[in-house]
Specification:
Mean pLDDT: 83
Radius of gyration: 16 Å
Structural class: mainly alpha
Shape: globular
Largest sheet: none
Helix content: over 70%
Number of domains: 1
Number of helices: 6
Distance between the termini: 19 Å
Strand content: under 5%
Length: 173
């Protein structure tokens, strides 16, 4: 058992469990509190924020796995289309983990722009997968939901970015 608190952040299992528990809490907040505070029908996608930031700092393998795990947790909470959010978030984790080496993650605005882009990409992937399984989702409805979700998600990004940044800074020391 590690003696100091900072060494917990060096343990990948602890970090993964911490992010899954945090994701669960954030899903509950999104589906309760932020349902009342939705703007133009949009709610922040906290799972996407955690996935993108984790992928940016940890790379495509860990980002993809974390995206799958957090997306599956989201699927379990939603109770429909089991696996579709897991695939969306897993793909986003892979892609943004691959892009991570090409962006300057210490600049505060770059990860926020990544969030906006990832939110739109996630909505598009969700739309395609939903159409493949026979859902009657319409492109116009998806687009009307994707834009407010993306903006709302990007607005909450800085709060979680600081948390993930500090966790990875401690891990790198």
């Amino acid at each position: 058992m590690p003696k100091d608190k900072e060494s917990f952040f060096r343990n990948p299992l602890f970090v993964a469990i911490f992010l899954l528990v945090l994701g669960y809490i954030l899903l509950i907040l999104r589906d309760t509190l932020f349902t009342k505070w939705s703007i133009a029908g949009g709610k922040p996608d906290f799972i996407l924020i955690l996935t993108v930031y984790y992928a940016i700092f940890q790379g495509w393998k860990k980002g993809g796995i974390m995206g799958l795990a957090l997306g599956f947790l989201e699927d379990l909470m939603a109770g429909r289309f089991l696996g579709i959010n897991a695939l969306c978030k897993g793909i986003i984790g892979l892609v943004f983990g691959l892009v991570a080496g090409k962006i300057y993650r210490d600049n505060f605005l770059v990860p926020i722009a990544c969030l906006l882009l990832s939110s739109l990409c996630s909505s598009a992937i969700y739309f395609v997968l939903a159409k493949i399984i026979g859902s009657n989702i319409y492109f116009s409805g998806m687009l009307l939901n994707a834009v407010p979700n993306g903006i709302y998600t990007a607005c909450f990004g800085p709060v979680l970015y600081v948390l993930i940044y500090l966790m990875n800074k401690k891990e790198g020391e």
